[in-house]
């Protein structure tokens, strides 16, 4: 009997031993039924929005069985690790923003990957020069210590009501039974085929006869089901120590390359001590006000909360919702606010355990006013220089010699948004960085390792330069907005590397200023200005009269990109209903569900 069948049999026996009941969609091993997903759902009770219907169903089932938003978010995330393995999973990390309805308070959990202790400022240099980015990406050297499972345990320990062992069961079944391959999954496999072919374990786990699985076929991952089962039995210790930890370290230090790989694959520096010593962190959220609303986000080492908050602070000085303000003028101010906030992000943001981040100054109204004064009716010349938030930093330490950072972030990642009938909310972005991560699968474990350390600058001396134990800067921007009484208005987030920030920023402006519903705000064509010569824009935006006016009247210039982001969110409406929303088209479209739908 081959190893895959043996692993599948183990899952069957496990399910029988635990007395688990399979979902009505089919027996274990039966071909799953592909269900049409809808991007918008309105109603009462709990709500879930993700990029994947199977994952959204898992979260909704937890809510219907009495679990709270944190329970459902963890179960949903585990399911996304099965169906979206090239974007997220237990080989990576992320950031979770949680609204506790009973306390009317917001907390955040940082499960960002860390550099191994042996990592140095010059670990990405050879002969004094940076290792080429593509070689950093597909290597053991780029793998950070994964934080996802520890983050799940910390979230559940403080805010959850169900044990991780229970919440992993739907994903154990999903991985063993399989899911229907769609065009997005197949295309992501095709796009990574050359990388995947170079690793024996990735070939075996994710390719079928050396090729991407066909659309409509059933994809099973019994190795991941077995890994989840071990974690269900032993908790995080079963991942951060013992068999799985040894397998991760061996994979990082000795990448399982084929006999003649098509690339140079460097070994990494991770040890079992790095894994056993990992700890996720509960941090205070970033907080800023916007037109009387409170905007909560993720603080450093994420740059999402500070950059979205600063951009909104700058934009607050313009009458964006005034119908007499031409839309191209409003969009020009939006682009310039983003441009200036990205300049500040590049200089100051990093892991606060290693660099002094002037967060108070960056989010101050006074600093925003100073940056706003630089904006004219014509696009600024690239690049704009970072400002100096230190005078507004409340006497806290402020870096004096930081230099701007331009590290590249992969466009992958995934985001889920969940709320429950009690009003608790989770906005959770998590990732393995590049689409396909490092491309290195842990043999016989069913998951791909991240390449998150490539989010560092490869050179020393910057706020975001590498160091042992340091967390690389991120752009993940899980966000929750409340009114003056701390009642939720909207929760959202997106994947997309550094464009995450502009996607969240634009959806907020669309909803809060331009009067769009959340589904309309998500569907609208996007643009992304990140202190670059040209602004990335989707084709539909480029064909709009606003784009033409931005070029002719404001001197903006654009570069076409197929799509930006893949947002999900939940709006909390004045009549007490909730509206879950996902993408209707981008990344193959998403899946929104509510507990008690209304027409």
Automatic annotation (TrEMBL):
GO terms for molecular function: glutathione hydrolase activity; leukotriene C4 gamma-glutamyl transferase activity. The active site is at 413 (nucleophile). Pfam families: G_glu_transpept. Residues 460-482 are annotated as: Disordered. It catalyses: an S-substituted glutathione + H2O = an S-substituted L-cysteinylglycine + L-glutamate; glutathione + H2O = L-cysteinylglycine + L-glutamate; an N-terminal (5-L-glutamyl)-[peptide] + an alpha-amino acid = 5-L-glutamyl amino acid + an N-terminal L-alpha-aminoacyl-[peptide]. Keywords: Acyltransferase, Glutathione biosynthesis, Hydrolase, Transferase, Zymogen. Its EC number is 2.3.2.2, 3.4.19.13. Gene3D superfamilies: 1.10.246.130, 3.60.20.40. GO terms for biological process: glutathione biosynthetic process; glutathione catabolic process. L-glutamate binds at residues 112, 455, 474-475, 497. InterPro entries: GGT_bact, GGT_lsub, GGT_peptidase, GGT_ssub_C, Ntn_hydrolases_N. The keyword Thylakoid does not apply. This enzyme consists of two polypeptide chains, which are synthesized in precursor form from a single polypeptide. Belongs to the gamma-glutamyltransferase family. This is Glutathione hydrolase proenzyme. It comes from uncultured Rubrobacteraceae bacterium. The lineage of its organism: Bacteria, Bacillati, Actinomycetota, Rubrobacteria, Rubrobacterales.
């Amino acid at each position: 009997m081959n190893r895959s069948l043996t692993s599948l049999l183990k899952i069957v026996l496990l399910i029988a031993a635990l007395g688990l009941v399979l979902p009505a969609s089919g027996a274990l091993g039966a071909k799953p039924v592909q269900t049409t997903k809808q991007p918008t759902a309105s109603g009462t009770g709990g709500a879930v929005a993700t990029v994947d219907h199977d994952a959204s169903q898992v979260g909704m089932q937890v809510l219907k069985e009495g679990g709270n938003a944190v329970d459902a978010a963890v179960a949903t995330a585990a399911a996304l690790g099965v169906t979206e393995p090239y974007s997220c999973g237990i080989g990576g990390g992320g950031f979770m923003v949680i609204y506790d309805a009973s306390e009317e308070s917001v907390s955040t959990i940082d499960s960002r990957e860390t550099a191994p202790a042996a990592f140095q400022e010059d670990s990405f240099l050879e002969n004094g020069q940076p290792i080429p980015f593509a070689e950093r990406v597909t290597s053991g050297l780029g793998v950070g210590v994964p934080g996802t499972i520890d983050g799940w345990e910390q979230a559940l320990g403080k805010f959850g009501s169900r044990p991780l062992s229970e919440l992993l069961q739907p994903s154990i079944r999903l991985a063993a039974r399989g899911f229907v391959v769609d065009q997005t999954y197949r295309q992501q496999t095709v796009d990574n085929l050359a990388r995947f072919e170079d690793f024996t374990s990735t070939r075996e786990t994710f390719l079928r006869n050396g090729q991407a699985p066909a659309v409509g076929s059933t994809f099973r991952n019994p190795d991941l089901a077995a890994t989840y089962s071990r974690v269900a039995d032993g908790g995080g210790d079963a991942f951060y120590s013992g068999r799985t930890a040894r397998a991760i370290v061996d994979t990082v230090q000795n990448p399982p390359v084929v006999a003649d790989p098509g690339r140079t694959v460097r070994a990494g520096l991770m040890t079992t001590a790095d894994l056993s010593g990992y700890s996720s962190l509960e941090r205070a959220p970033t907080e800023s006000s916007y037109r009387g609303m409170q905007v909560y986000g993720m603080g450093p080492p994420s740059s999402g909360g500070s950059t979205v908050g600063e951009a909104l602070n700058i934009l607050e000085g313009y009458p964006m919702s005034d119908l007499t303000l031409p839309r191209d003028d409003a969009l020009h101010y939006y682009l310039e606010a983003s441009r200036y906030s990205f300049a500040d992000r590049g200089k100051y943001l990093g892991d606060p355990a290693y660099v002094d981040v002037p967060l108070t100054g960056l989010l101050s109204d006074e600093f925003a006013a100073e940056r706003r004064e630089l904006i004219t009716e014509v696009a600024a010349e690239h690049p704009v220089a970072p400002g100096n938030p230190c005078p507004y930093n409340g006497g806290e330490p402020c870096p004096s010699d930081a230099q701007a950072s331009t590290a590249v972030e992969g466009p992958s990642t995934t985001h889920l948004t969940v709320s429950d009938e009690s009003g608790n909310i989770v906005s959770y972005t998590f990732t393995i960085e590049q689409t396909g991560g490092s491309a290195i699968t842990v043999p016989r474990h069913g998951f791909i390792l991240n390449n998150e350390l490539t989010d560092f600058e490869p050179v020393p001396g910057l706020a975001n330069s590498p160091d042992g134990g340091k967390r690389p800067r991120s752009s993940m921007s899980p966000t929750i907005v409340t009114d003056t009484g701390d009642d939720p208005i909207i929760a959202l987030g997106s994947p997309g590397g550094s464009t995450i920030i502009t996607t969240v920023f634009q959806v907020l402006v669309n909803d809060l200023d331009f009067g769009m519903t959340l589904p309309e705000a998500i569907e609208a064509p996007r643009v992304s200005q990140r202190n670059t010569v040209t602004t990335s824009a989707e084709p539909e935006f480029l064909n709009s009269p606003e784009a033409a006016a931005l070029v002719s009247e404001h001197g903006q210039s654009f570069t076409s990109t197929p799509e930006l982001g893949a947002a999900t969110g939940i709006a909390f409406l004045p009549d007490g209903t909730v509206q879950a929303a996902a993408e209707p088209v981008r990344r193959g479209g998403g899946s929104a569900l509510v507990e008690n739908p209304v027409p």
